[in-house]
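ok so I'm stuck.
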Amino acid sequence: MDTTTREETMLLEKKTAVIYGGGGTIGGAMARAFAAEGARVFLAGRTPEPLEAVAADVRAVGGLAETAVVDALDEAAVNGWVDSVAGRADGIDVSVNMISHEALFTPLLDMPTDAFARSLERVARTYMITNRAAARHMVERGSGVILHFGGGDTTNAMPGLGNVQVGYELVEAMRRQWACELGPRGVRVLTLRTGGIADSATDEIGRRMAEGTLLKRTATLEDVGRVAAFVASDDARTLTSTQVNISCGALVD
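replied:
not stuck anymore, here's the structure
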């Protein structure tokens, strides 16, 4: 009997990942998971302290992390930073945009038009800027992964969400377009869809989230990081232009 086993390697060994909003709860979880799987992570955000806190966690367990104060709505700043990272790391393998959206939980009937339009312009602008900055480098080498977060919900039967689900649908429309344009050049574009994470909510809200799922629990921050690392890895090379549903059955396809 052949007892030979494949040598275990980390999912993202020698990969370079950039994460906008890397100092946030979910961005930080992804950064820690990417680094644990061998990636060198570059964290961007507008406030240095949370970025450095995440970087310290990564370094404390032997990972590689660098931080930079970058506004993901500033095209020149993003392009300059990404070009610098790509130059030092010999390319960009993974790009994740986790900056917070401007959530307006107001019925559309009552929402000021300017506020609604401004919030969606912010979403469109940041994803255009960050995706394009990474894609320029990814297409040169014929590989790479651009990861979105949130996900669409075609059932959308919950009133009072205001601009939130509309914003997620905009991100999904952009994901589909980026995927079909970049796919022939070896770049994958996907979305993680959670339906809510109890770890980042109050106990009562977390309990309600869990009750609304088929598994009676929600994805944890560790779950999000692990799945993101898998999706960003070559083990998931057949996945693109799709949502990866880790909602524990809160959102049923």
